[in-house]
Design goal:
Elements lengths: L1 H23 L3 H21 L2
Helix pairs in contact: 1-2
Length: about 50
């Protein structure tokens, strides 16, 4: 379980770091993909931490 949580936390950190670059470049497909990845990571983390 710890590996799953660590992986999703890393994914969220990376996605949050890349998101401003996608916005600055007006790259909507990448921003949408990052948003979906953050949602998925958030749901997984909230479920795993119960």
């Amino acid at each position: 379980m710890k590996l799953l949580v660590d992986g999703h936390e890393a994914l969220a950190r990376i996605a949050r770091g890349i998101f401003p670059l996608a916005e600055k470049a007006s790259d909507e497909p990448t921003a949408d993909l990052l948003t979906q990845a953050l949602r998925c990571a958030s749901i997984t983390l909230s479920t795993a931490r119960r």
